[in-house]
Amino acid sequence: MQGLTLRVKYPGAQIKQGVLDGTLGTQAVLFLENLLGSIFNSTRIVETPSHPGDMTVYYRLYLSLVVLCIIMHCANGKELRRSLNARNGRRPRHRGEQIQKSDTFDSTKVRALDISYPLTLFTLGYATDWRSSAVYDPALEAKSTEGEYKEQSLAQDQEDVWLYENWFYGMKEGVIMESGALNGITFSTSYMFESFGNWTALHVEADTENYKFLRGNREAAINIHAALCTEPKLLHYVSSGMEAVRGFLEFMDQSFIKQWHNNIASGKVDVNSLPATQCVPLKLLLKELHVKTIDIWVLDTEGAEESVLKGTDFTEVRINAVAMECDEHDIAKNKRKTDILEENNFECQLVMRNCMCKHNLFVPHKAPVLSKLKEFKNWGDYANPAE
To answer: How far apart (Å, rounded) are the C-alpha atoms in residues 274 and 237?
Structure first.
């Protein structure tokens, strides 16, 4: 079943209204985790699949799925019908109300949040919870002494190795969230933890093209096509021009748009024709996923880190460590970002060009010997490590 995913799409109207709180999508996911896990792990099915009595299991599955469909229709039918009405340019009419035509169309009401779950989660049964925090394993520490984990390091500045050796040495089955996951391979900090320590990777990627590759490259992860903002809104991605000048239109200065994307500034290209991505606050996303603990949060959103931090409710989720890109060209901005974390009981330090922040209540597990990480001669020089 590796590579198959259950994709849950949340209606955009729910996102806009900020009601992603234990709604239909997660209820269905939790239901299927328990249902499919208990059925496929049943010893009766495995040992005596031809026994007539086992058919009752399949009948239960059939009836359970019917019940699930009924629950889905009743619980979210109104919202789905509202979303479909919006998609067709209509809004629900109340009794006695006259239909009024409108020339405006709110596209944010028909957008959806796309979350791709690996189907392997649904064969483990309800006894295994991917949301649980990392635990120390002596066997994994013994395996780590040979340095095998470093062979699986893909992070840009070996942030994965630094985090593992300084704070999470010998710890397995944790949760690592990567905001700005790209294609899941290039500069991935989560890859080593997932492949070596059996961690669950939670990826948030806003770029449509990157997300397509992300789902294929990281089939065992939970991949989310979205952007993170302080408030729910719709973003439009500009893919024209050089790669360095591409990005979300809403985050670009007007002078930058005029210089590099004059076809948009001049009105030759309609903004609504650009690929759109839903942007949500992290606190709403984690609430919907029922995530209460994150061991490592890798925050690299190309300059939007401060906005993302402001949209995070640190009282609702326990985050043990944050690895955040810090730009040497904007020291004041770095301080504003670390101030937000330090106000929420984190202690930060600068490692290369990254701010590594640890929660004061988290007790780290450090390697007895630390690796000498690669250093770079110039900012952005990835090819020529210093001697």
So the answer is: 6
